[in-house]
Design goal:
Elements lengths: L7 E9 L2 E6 L6 E4 L5 H13 L7 E8 L2 E2 L1 H34 L4 H8 L3 H9 L3
Parallel strand pairs: 1-4
Antiparallel strand pairs: 1-2, 2-3, 4-5
Protein name: MerR
Organism: Allosaccharopolyspora coralli
Protein backbone atom coordinates (compact mmCIF):
# COMPACT_ATOMS: atom_id res chain seq x y z
CA UNK A 1 0.00 0.00 0.00
CA UNK A 2 1.35 3.39 -0.97
CA UNK A 3 1.68 6.01 1.72
CA UNK A 4 -0.08 9.33 1.20
CA UNK A 5 1.87 12.07 -0.48
CA UNK A 6 3.77 14.21 2.03
CA UNK A 7 2.01 17.34 0.78
CA UNK A 8 -1.49 15.83 1.23
CA UNK A 9 -3.23 16.37 4.55
CA UNK A 10 -6.74 15.62 5.76
CA UNK A 11 -8.07 18.46 7.89
CA UNK A 12 -11.01 17.89 10.23
CA UNK A 13 -13.10 21.01 10.84
CA UNK A 14 -15.81 21.54 13.43
CA UNK A 15 -17.39 24.36 15.41
CA UNK A 16 -16.50 24.74 19.09
CA UNK A 17 -17.06 27.64 21.51
CA UNK A 18 -17.87 30.13 18.72
CA UNK A 19 -14.74 29.16 16.79
CA UNK A 20 -13.96 26.98 13.79
CA UNK A 21 -11.42 24.38 14.90
CA UNK A 22 -9.21 22.70 12.29
CA UNK A 23 -7.03 19.69 13.13
CA UNK A 24 -4.60 18.10 10.70
CA UNK A 25 -5.12 14.34 11.09
CA UNK A 26 -1.58 13.12 10.51
CA UNK A 27 0.28 15.74 12.56
CA UNK A 28 -0.06 15.53 16.33
CA UNK A 29 -0.83 18.89 17.86
CA UNK A 30 -1.46 20.54 14.50
CA UNK A 31 -4.64 22.32 15.54
CA UNK A 32 -5.74 25.89 14.96
CA UNK A 33 -8.92 27.87 15.39
CA UNK A 34 -10.42 30.88 13.66
CA UNK A 35 -13.50 33.03 14.07
CA UNK A 36 -14.50 32.90 10.40
CA UNK A 37 -14.59 29.77 8.29
CA UNK A 38 -13.17 31.63 5.30
CA UNK A 39 -9.92 32.10 7.27
CA UNK A 40 -9.35 28.41 8.05
CA UNK A 41 -7.51 27.54 4.81
CA UNK A 42 -4.94 30.33 5.26
CA UNK A 43 -4.43 29.52 8.95
CA UNK A 44 -3.93 25.79 8.32
CA UNK A 45 -1.48 26.48 5.49
CA UNK A 46 0.44 28.93 7.68
CA UNK A 47 0.56 26.39 10.52
CA UNK A 48 1.83 23.66 8.16
CA UNK A 49 4.43 26.05 6.78
CA UNK A 50 5.69 26.77 10.31
CA UNK A 51 5.77 23.06 11.18
CA UNK A 52 7.42 21.81 7.99
CA UNK A 53 9.20 24.75 6.39
CA UNK A 54 7.38 24.13 3.10
CA UNK A 55 5.63 27.06 1.38
CA UNK A 56 1.91 27.47 2.02
CA UNK A 57 1.10 26.63 -1.60
CA UNK A 58 2.88 23.26 -1.32
CA UNK A 59 0.07 21.54 0.56
CA UNK A 60 -2.91 19.69 -0.85
CA UNK A 61 -5.62 19.88 1.79
CA UNK A 62 -8.63 17.59 2.00
CA UNK A 63 -11.32 19.17 4.14
CA UNK A 64 -13.63 17.06 6.30
CA UNK A 65 -16.51 18.83 8.07
CA UNK A 66 -18.41 17.37 11.01
CA UNK A 67 -20.52 18.50 13.91
CA UNK A 68 -22.18 16.55 16.70
CA UNK A 69 -20.89 13.28 15.29
CA UNK A 70 -22.35 13.94 11.83
CA UNK A 71 -20.15 14.33 8.78
CA UNK A 72 -21.45 16.94 6.37
CA UNK A 73 -18.48 17.09 4.01
CA UNK A 74 -20.43 15.82 0.99
CA UNK A 75 -23.08 18.49 1.50
CA UNK A 76 -20.42 21.22 1.70
CA UNK A 77 -18.67 19.85 -1.40
CA UNK A 78 -21.97 19.77 -3.31
CA UNK A 79 -22.79 23.33 -2.29
CA UNK A 80 -19.33 24.56 -3.33
CA UNK A 81 -19.68 22.77 -6.66
CA UNK A 82 -23.05 24.38 -7.38
CA UNK A 83 -21.84 27.79 -6.20
CA UNK A 84 -18.99 27.55 -8.73
CA UNK A 85 -21.39 26.43 -11.46
CA UNK A 86 -23.74 29.30 -10.61
CA UNK A 87 -20.86 31.78 -10.83
CA UNK A 88 -19.93 30.42 -14.27
CA UNK A 89 -23.56 30.64 -15.39
CA UNK A 90 -23.83 34.24 -14.20
CA UNK A 91 -20.62 35.18 -16.01
CA UNK A 92 -21.92 33.55 -19.21
CA UNK A 93 -25.25 35.34 -18.80
CA UNK A 94 -23.51 38.67 -18.30
CA UNK A 95 -21.36 38.19 -21.43
CA UNK A 96 -24.38 37.18 -23.52
CA UNK A 97 -26.46 40.09 -22.19
CA UNK A 98 -23.71 42.59 -22.98
CA UNK A 99 -23.33 41.15 -26.47
CA UNK A 100 -27.07 41.52 -27.11
CA UNK A 101 -27.10 45.06 -25.69
CA UNK A 102 -24.07 46.11 -27.75
CA UNK A 103 -25.40 44.53 -30.95
CA UNK A 104 -28.85 46.10 -30.58
CA UNK A 105 -27.41 49.51 -29.72
CA UNK A 106 -25.12 49.37 -32.77
CA UNK A 107 -28.23 48.52 -34.80
CA UNK A 108 -29.84 51.77 -33.63
CA UNK A 109 -32.26 50.41 -31.05
CA UNK A 110 -33.10 52.68 -28.11
CA UNK A 111 -31.94 51.83 -24.61
CA UNK A 112 -35.57 51.49 -23.48
CA UNK A 113 -36.30 48.94 -26.22
CA UNK A 114 -33.09 47.07 -25.45
CA UNK A 115 -34.12 46.96 -21.79
CA UNK A 116 -37.33 45.19 -22.82
CA UNK A 117 -35.37 42.61 -24.81
CA UNK A 118 -32.95 41.77 -21.99
CA UNK A 119 -35.43 42.15 -19.14
CA UNK A 120 -33.85 44.98 -17.20
CA UNK A 121 -34.22 48.73 -16.75
CA UNK A 122 -33.07 51.27 -19.30
CA UNK A 123 -30.83 52.71 -16.57
CA UNK A 124 -29.11 49.34 -16.24
CA UNK A 125 -28.66 49.17 -20.01
CA UNK A 126 -27.02 52.60 -19.90
CA UNK A 127 -24.68 51.44 -17.11
CA UNK A 128 -23.69 48.33 -19.04
CA UNK A 129 -23.07 50.32 -22.21
CA UNK A 130 -20.94 52.78 -20.25
CA UNK A 131 -19.00 49.95 -18.64
CA UNK A 132 -19.84 51.15 -15.13
CA UNK A 133 -21.59 47.97 -14.02
Amino acid sequence: MMSPRPDHHVVDVHREDHLWVAAVRDLAGAVTDVERLEDVDLEVRDMLHLLTGEPESYFELEWRFSQGGRDYTESVDALQHWEAEAAKALANRDRARLEVITTLRESGMSQRAIAEVVGTSHQRVAQLLAGTA
